[in-house]
Amino acid sequence: MRIVMAEDDPLLREGLALLLRAESMDVVATAGTAEEALAAIDAHEPDVAVLDVRMPPTHTDEGIVAAVEARRRRPGLAVLVLSAYVEQTFATELLTSGVAGLGYLLKERVGRVEEFMDALRRVAGGGTAIDPEVVAQLFTSSRDSRLERLSPREGDVLALMAEGMGNAAIAERLVVTEGAVHKHIRSIFAKLDLSPTDRVDRRVAAVLRYLEGVRRLA
């Protein structure tokens, strides 16, 4: 897996690069600014770009802007954005560019190497990896009335789906059977008015409907 990584803190940047290389990842370039990151992405055509949200010169949303621009220039590029804390406006701004091959994690998750690498591989494979804390805040903020139909447990399942988890992982996290997860998902589809005859992946559509309710707040 070829990776371009952008982080303005030199120690964290080098630490992340060492971690990724120790996991047999090919870090083809590192950058300290969003501008350098975009140049490296253009030059090296990586599989994944790992970008910090706040970078010079203003330390506000340079990483988000760079992520959106990188995906515009290279459709299909997987992007994993790292943030020191939940920044809801930035998260929703990024999600409007599409959720396939997209991740948004808190930096504290990097210290949990197995979770971080699992998220990175999911994103590289075209999946989604959204930090549980980000999902929790987005879910709480959503005003889509259809989501209010969901039971608390169904809300938990949908939130984990939004993180990019499959049924087995959801079952393990919630300490229930896969059969129970399957039943919850069928109920979610029904309550969100997602028909089995729709020409869409209902699992993806459920997550997108949830995220769409969030985007309207941005």
UniProtKB/TrEMBL annotation:
Q: PANTHER family recorded for this chain?
A: TRANSCRIPTIONAL REGULATORY PROTEIN NARL-RELATED (PTHR43214:SF24), TWO-COMPONENT RESPONSE REGULATOR (PTHR43214)
| Domain HTH luxR-type, first and last residues per copy | 143-210
State any single GO MF term: DNA binding
Key words, A-Z: DNA-binding, Phosphoprotein, Transcription, Transcription regulation
Query: Know the name of this protein?
Result: DNA-binding response regulator
4-aspartylphosphate found at: D52
Tell me, what's a Pfam family for it?
Response_reg
Any idea where the Response regulatory domain is? 2-122
What is the species listed in this Swiss-Prot or TrEMBL entry?
A: Streptomyces daqingensis
The record's annotation in InterPro entries points to: CheY-like_superfamily, NreC/VraR/RcsB-like_REC, Sig_transdc_resp-reg_C-effctor, Sig_transdc_resp-reg_receiver, Tscrpt_reg_LuxR_C, WalR-like
